[in-house]
């Protein structure tokens, strides 16, 4: 059985406590490998290594740092198919989606590398003569990255590449369900020429390894993607040391389908949004709010098309829906189906674990007669469970869309430009799609949400650099005399 070690100070090392855990294929329950579990001393060593490497790395000109990221991007491209197949084995998503996941990592690597010749600040006139004013961006220091399992290469790359180009050094902890993909990413960056100590990789449970990262005094910022409860805990703990924190915490994303929508296009979007990645996306469309005039027809067509979705191994090109990630997630989904039935929603399709498939499979599930106050319409399930809600007008649909605590992604299908712009203005979300599904973010645009989806930060795009830098304001006075702002103004 293959063992995967920690990566600290440029070396692959065994865990300090010599403990491992199993990495499973969720489609077959076969063991992929044994993963070394980091101890508290390992976390300390990783943070110390990152701190020691910071001065040299942050002092390396950004265009030179970019060369390493460009090389890594090209290596990711060369290995795309191999990495996609490995991802499907480890995480379960269908091969086409795994290819897209790796492509996101490629895209953000190229994008972040390009920022190496920008890292833009501002220049502005001074209010005083013979004085120059500008801002520059400086790295934060050692940054802790804690990433989820549903995008096991894309999200680590989303965080790692901008953090590196900005001049930070890193301690990275991947999800325990998908560490091998991040191990492969770290191998590529090391092979591309990343100096020792700049990127350190530790594995283990969030309650122990994640906690040690959050509490380590040398780690000055935390970037986390995961659950709302964990995000709240991180925010509270990190505040004790005044760490900079970036959080992306999930969603309960609506698709509004108006009575003037192209129904076939809307159905395509709903199927992709609800059941792509087996519903395991923070941007998944778990609520569809349909105009009451077209609800019977839309519901009939949606059920008909959903029945045709094929479950199975993601390596099979004919598979539409792969497994969920683990047994606890399978149990959580089944629990929410029972909650929906108890709330008197109408279970019209699915609702069961899929037998006789050996892995963690759950049937694509649709509830109708759902009302906004039901838990299945308010709480994030993170599985292939879709709630259909009815609305009599756009205003009512938007009110329903905004009735949850999250605000990540949203969508409206309509042929009316007025409806589209009203949705853009009124829906409480960080992302709004017009005539497209709630999933499919592009890396050169900001990603994130409002309300309980996060703490106001954004990933990707130019905001990726903002996440991993501090702004320094610089004044250069070449007048040769004392000039006092706000005072010496004629």
Mind explaining what this structure looks like?
This protein is α/β, with parallel strands linked by helices and 490 residues long. The protein has 14 helices and 22 strands. The protein has helices at 40-59, 62-78, 80-91, 95-115, 154-165, 179-191, 206-215, 228-239, 263-275, 295-307, 327-342, 394-401, 417-426, 461-467, and strands at 3-4, 6-8, 11-13, 20-24, 31-36, 123-125, 131-139, 142-146, 169-173, 199-201, 219-225, 244-248, 253-257, 285-291, 346-349, 365-368, 385-391, 406-407, 409-413, 431-434, 450-451, 469-477. The strands form 6 sheets. A 7-stranded mixed sheet has the order 15-16-17-14-13-19-20, with helices on both faces. The protein starts with a strand and ends in a 13-residue tail after the last strand. The model has no long low-confidence stretch (mean pLDDT 96).
